[in-house]
Known about the structure:
Elements: E1 3-13, E2 18-28, E3 32-36, H1 43-50, E4 58-63, E5 66-67, E6 76-79, H2 91-101, H3 106-119, H4 135-147, E7 153-157, H5 165-180, E8 184-188, H6 192-198, E9 201-206, E10 209-215, H7 216-222, E11 227-235, E12 244-252, E13 255-262, H8 268-276, E14 279-286, H9 291-307
Parallel strand pairs: 3-8, 3-9, 6-7, 7-8
Antiparallel strand pairs: 1-2, 1-4, 4-5, 9-10, 11-13, 11-14, 12-13
Amino acid sequence: xxxxxxxxxxxxxxxxxxxxxxxxxxxxxxxxxxxxxxxxxxxxxxxxxxxxxxxxxxxxxxxxxxxxxxxxxxxxxxxxxxxxxxxxxxxxxxxxxxxxxxxxxxxxxxxxxxxxxxxxxxxxxxxxxxxxxxxxxxxxxxxxxxxxxxxxxxxxxxxxxxxxxxxxxxxxxxxxxxxxxxxxxxxxxxxxxxxxxxxxxxxxxxxxxxxxxxxxxxxxxxxxxxxxxxxxxxxxxxxxxxxxxxxxxxxxxxxxxxxxxxxxxxxxxxxxxxxxxxxxxxxxxxxxxxxxxxxxxxxxxxxxxxxx
Length: 308
């Protein structure tokens, strides 16, 4: 895949600690790239560097084939975790003002803002001051302002914090739609489920370093645990040497639910054939690790290693 944005060997030091220690990430064009990590790991520092807000002490950032520079900022939409809009200013006025700073004409800004405000059901708040809006409404306004000028790169830092499930779903759909329109998106979040739903690739930062990166599908394969769930309506399973052992067994209203652990090298087909010979199979599936499982495993192991 062609890369839209790359950061190479980024180092950023502050007075008493190193925020980023030799960090490299590659963000493919037209994909959603997840930037993960616990609080204080260095994610926001990296985002600020990719956004040309702060500069690295060492390393370089390439944006659409050239070194990142001041004029690229027009082509970046950034939704920071700490939302920064003027509380006392009317919502519509403020949105138009910010759109014009990004190079839109007043007419174009007004037309497109009206479409977005209708879509997000916030049109009635056009003439209200920002402080009169709920937190969720303010977030919607800020999201619209971020994407309005159709920048090539969008950076969302914790975009779902403060949203109820219905609005989080609405926002998720919009982010996927922006990807479909060809935008490149960096998405930073603690919410592993949303990362799993929308990201193509991720980098996990812990203690100022990248400790894991790759395509989500590949990472799930890499962290497979060999665990399976099977439910039988008749018959019973017994462990089969060389194929699998039984970790758990529960009976419910005439069905028996098993958690199985396959031996190294057992194929799904071999496992399935063995199960079919032993009873009436209602369901069978491999338990794939979630991004949350992977996150906890990698960050947890790091935590233990650092203690030693």
